[in-house]
Amino acid sequence: MAFYSGKDGQLRIDNVKAAKVQSWSFSSSQAVLETTSLEDTDRTIVPGVRSYSGSARLFYYQASAGSGGDVTKLINKCIKPATGGVAAESESVQLMLRIEDGSPSRRYINFQCFITGISMNSAVGEVLSADISWESDGAPRDVEF
Length: 145
Hints:
Layout: E1 9-13, E2 16-17, E3 21-34, E4 45-59, H1 70-78, E5 82-83, E6 86-87, E7 93-99, E8 107-121, E9 129-136, E10 142-144
Antiparallel strand pairs: 1-2, 1-7, 3-4, 4-9, 5-6, 7-8, 8-9, 8-10
C-alpha cells in the first residue's frame, strides 16, 4: 500500500515541470438538469455541463539574473499591457497535475485552461509567492489516476 504526500506532486506548465510549486488543488463539478414532470413523485435528473477548476501556490524566483520563473510565464499569459488603449486577450495555458512516485504507472490530469486569478504575496521572513487560480477550457486532454 502506498500513500502519497505533497512531495510526490508536480505541476507542469506547457509541458515543462514548474520548478518551485508549494501546492496545487483540482476540483471537478457536474451540473445536473432536472427532468421531473407534473405528477412525478420523485425527482429525476440528467447530466449537464461539467467544469474543472483549481489553484496552485508557486514560489517566485529567478534561476539566473534576468531570467523569469514559472510565475512570470503565467503572469505574461494572463495580464496584458494596453497598447493604444487596448490590451491583448489573455492566452490559454496547458497545465498538468501529476503524482510522481517513480513507478511506471503514471497519475496525472492534463488540461487547457485560462488563469483566472493571480495574487502575489510578499512578507518579512517568507519567500515571495504567487497564488494562481484557473478554469479549464473544455474537457481534460488526458486523465490517468
